[in-house]
Amino acid sequence: MTLCITKPIEFSRCKGRKIQLNFNGGEISSDAGAILLNKADKRINLIDRIVAGAKDTRCQGKIHHTIADMIRQRVYGLALGYEDLNDHNTLRKDTVIQTAVGQDKNLASNATLCRFENAVDRQLCWDIHETLVEVFIESFDKPPKEIILDFDATDDAVFGDQIGKFYHGYYKHYCFLPLYVFCGKHLLAAYLRPSNIDPAY
């Protein structure tokens, strides 16, 4: 019988928490990819660039979670397939997600994330899109001779009583009809719209 011995893989520490990947059991997570998302985020400095100019209007003495941490928590959750805010009731206590965000304590609750998302203004939305375009431009070693922008609308199904939801006859369910702008695989802009409009608008 072959005896396989795999050395553990060490990651940089998160505050006082030692991060190690091994195959000995212990605390197991199916979301270890969050650590790699964090590495990719840091490489292109995406989240920090987005929040650089963000204004925090909350009462400073009562803040437990920074804007950067909440955006990381939400973005990493979406990237891992957790679309609903309710998922963060569990994710906020997941040590892998905490580590990816850069914390060693419970992250923001779904209620806190909901309040944050509802308080986002046009300027932060603009900053997000501006950063996505900057990252896209930086991905080229030299300016391309031509780029093709793909404007596309698609359905985003809703299952609650969200403001702006409408029944769409083509998709046969209640939804929003967001507009996306892509160049190849790069998302440059996303604009949430109600579905009671012509997709060409």
**Which runs of at least 5 residues are low in confidence (pLDDT < 50)?**
none
**Overall structural domain count:** 2
- Please identify the structural class as seen in this structure: alpha+beta
Strand order of the largest sheet: 3-7-8
Average pLDDT? 86
Distance between the termini: 66 Å
Oligomer: single chain
Count of helical stretches = 7
Radius of gyration: 20 Å
Shape: globular
Helix content: 25-40%
Helices and strands, in order, run as: EEHHHHHHHEEEEEE
User: How does the major sheet shape up?
Assistant: 3 strands, antiparallel
Bin the strand percentage.
15-25%
Number of strands: 8
Features:
201 residues, alpha+beta, three-stranded antiparallel sheet, 7 helices, 8 strands, 17% strand
List the helices and strands and how they pair.
Elements: E1 9-14, E2 17-21, H1 33-44, H2 46-51, H3 67-79, H4 88-91, H5 95-101, H6 110-119, H7 122-138, E3 150-153, E4 156-157, E5 166-168, E6 173-176, E7 179-183, E8 186-191
Antiparallel strand pairs: 1-2, 3-7, 4-6, 5-6, 7-8
Helix pairs in contact: 1-5, 3-5
